[in-house]
Amino acid sequence: MERYEKIPLFGNMVVDENAGLSHTHIALSIMAVKYPATIFIYLSKYPQGKRIKKILYTAAWVLLYAVNETIDLSFNLLKYYNGWNFWWSIMFSTVMFTLLRVHYKKPLAAWLLSIGFIVFLWNLFDVPSSVFR
């Protein structure tokens, strides 16, 4: 199932239909712009020194993503399906930002941890193989 729905702009008019865009186009454009920009900023400003500084820095980015998702939810720009919810997004963001830093230092370890996390989520949410067609 798709995570995003069409958003009515005025009456029956729908933003993505009028622009000739599908949900896939919108999701891919977010992935192509937002996520790479986030990675570059997050890693380039990552603090050195004490562990607490690093934890607070990562927590600030998780909070930023949570605020963004809260705004999307309040405008009905986002819907959850298949048991996913806001708290799963918080956990996902925490793991994502942590693994980004691990990947910067030890790429192979990050890949192995990522695969383990994917398998965990896949089994927990009982993702059907039909999503890969």
From TrEMBL:
The keyword Transmembrane helix belongs to this UniProt entry's keyword annotation: yes
Alphabetical UniProt keywords: Membrane, Transmembrane, Transmembrane helix
Transmembrane segments: 20-43, 55-78, 84-101, 108-125
InterPro entries reported for this sequence: CBO0543-like (IPR048147)
Ranges in coiled-coil conformation: none
UniProt keyword Flavoprotein present: no
Protein name (database record): CBO0543 family protein
Organism of provenance: Metabacillus herbersteinensis
